[in-house]
Design a protein that fits this description.
By secondary structure, the chain is α/β, with parallel strands linked by helices. It has a single domain, classed as Nucleotidyltransferase, domain 5 (2-Layer Sandwich). Helix content is 23%, strand content 26%. The chain is built from 3 helices and 6 strands; from the N terminus they run E-E-E-E-H-E-H-E-H. The protein has helices at residues 48-57, 70-78, 91-100; strands spanning 2-9, 12-13, 22-29, 32-40, 62-64, 82-84. Strands 1, 2, 3, 4, 5 and 6 form a 6-stranded mixed sheet that branches. Strand 5, helix 2 and strand 6 (82-84) form a beta-alpha-beta unit. The termini are far apart.
Length: 128
């Protein structure tokens, strides 16, 4: 059994990992995904260490996300977390697809982030 976390905006994958207000955690056993909890990321937006610590405390091993910056990926991998990218749509469907082994990571990394609030990028490297 393993645990995954998906950045969440309502019932959908939050396309921007660092701005996500929360993360939905699922346990993966066999080819089944079971909802565990919703973790609040209040106050942790763009804080690599704070987010990484939250995931480790809650037993998360894999992050399944849409867009994520290279610095965040490096920080998460440094503490032993796996990061897969390219998720979009329903959080529940993404978890089911991951559990079934059919999820394919796009290895999409957000580029050119200045981490300023209210920024948007239209360069095709990251969806916000």
């Amino acid at each position: 059994m393993s645990k995954i976390a998906i950045p969440t905006n309502g019932e959908l994958v939050d396309a921007h990992f660092g701005k996500a207000a929360g993360f939905t955690v699922f346990e993966i056993e066999g080819k089944e995904a079971r909802f565990v909890e919703l973790l609040s990321a209040a106050g942790l937006q763009h804080q690599h260490e704070g987010l990484a610590s939250m995931f480790k405390r809650n037993g998360v091993e894999v992050l399944v996300c849409g867009g994520i910056g290279g610095g965040m990926i490096n920080g998460l991998k440094a503490i032993g977390l796996e990061v897969v990218t390219g998720a979009s749509g329903s959080v529940v469907e993404v978890a089911k697809t991951y559990a079934s082994g059919d999820f394919v990571s796009t290895r999409s990394v957000c580029q050119d982030h200045d981490h300023g609030h209210g920024h948007s990028h239209d360069h095709g490297k990251c969806s916000h």
